[in-house]
Give the backbone structure.
Amino acid sequence: MSEVRLRFAPSPTGYLHVGGARTALFNWLLARKENGKFILRIEDTDVARSTQESVDAILEGMRWLGLDWDEGPFYQSERFPLYKEFAARLLAEGKAYRCYCSAEELEAKREQALKEGGKPKYDGTCRGLTGEIPGKPYVVRFKAPHEGVTSFDDLVKGTISFANSELDDLIIQRSDGTPTYNFTVVIDDATMGVTTVIRGDDHVNNTPRQILLYQALGSPVPKFAHVPMILGADKTRLSKRHGATSVMAYRDMGFLPEAMVNYLVRLGWSHGDEEIFSLRELIDKFTIEAVGRSAGVFNPDKLLWLNAHYIKTGDPQRLAALLLPFLQERGVDVGQGPELADVVRTLQERARTMLEMADGALFYYRRAFDYDPQAAEKFLKPEVVPLFEAVRERLGRLDPFSGEGVEAAFKEICAEQGIKMGQLGPPVRVALCGGTTSPSIFEVIAVLGREDALQRIARALAFIKAHS
RNA sequence: GGUCCCAUCGUCUAGCGGUUAGGACACCGGCCUUUCACGUCGGUAACAGGGGUUCAAGUCCCCUUGGGAUCACCA
């Protein structure tokens, strides 16, 4: 009956970055594991900085990762009347008050306090005010207790306590009537029935104020779990300097969503010695208690390794579909050439990203490619002409035309000619692919098909004649 | 500066009083091999420092040091 309710509440001021994605993932995982609800809420109270493009980018990122939500997306900008209502209620109950201090005055006092080595807290000038001053702009401040201690049991960091004397009367409503963050989060989490708040640990300092607000509102305080942030290689906050931080940028670089999810979850969370987790396994095995307390460095190499793993073990048909846009970007018409899934199969073990796979797949669809100069000089020499002729002859009558058949044919040629595969393979590879690296030439020939393979050999033969 | 948080290989981490301190990425070697990869076998590499508590401390406590977060009419 008492289902858990979690939420991801990004502010739409940019794309979905890896840190946010991980926070979303942890929330989603717990919701799914506990059969609870996962709510998506857009925190766009800062109208000036929020954009629809950002909202779209965030939703796109969530969908790409497979993080579906049960409720929302809710927009805070559509709930302003609600916040105003609650602010008025607090005001009426004497739990908040109107503050007429101007932003300039406050700024001056803050600087003064800082200069004297004190804490830059609000001094409470208007705290005792009772009546209203007609016509004068005011903000609404929450009347926070000055005594006592506010503490909470953080699900990842343990008990955290703050002396209330450290807190001041935070503004919950601006002079223009709009609500502030610390207020809207509490109102929303309270009214949406959020039971557990998983968020970045840059929010721990906000938590005591929020708890006080819950108490003033008479709402149950949710559980909190503050997850550590993600750092760059130099241990500073992850930023563009360290490479891509946008989740979608990783898709564009050829990463698979399951690799991203797997990487992100392991950054800060672990389950014994296990490294590979499917979404299904994560739902079963994830626990917030197993999330580490310290910040972690984003390691692109490991992400790459995971991506390679998922490419290696992925379904060729699905990979082919994912590969298509990368190929089209390179001007390849996959309609003219071998079946893409067959091509994928030959590349799965040697591509770490779909981008690499696209590059590796190019030669299959390009018939008039240039030979790599060095490779041509080394391997496309007159001596290989009889070898190529033998290959032509064998391939011409090979039946059935399969990878195994091709391999057997090549072995026979080697035996007949008294040479080793090392003398036959490389030149054929250059003839087929234009360079010295490719999948097994047996597979390549099988995928290319008899006609295409033979034509490539013939083309190489012509090239040799023209250059000797 | 105040408050709060953090601290095991280069990196992600296991460890929850007694371990030869384990795994993974990366790196370095061997093997496999038609190229490149994959795979496989092996190797280098860590408990920040100091005090306690205890028969016993990477594990518990305190301090130091070093990181970080936060102190808005941003979220």
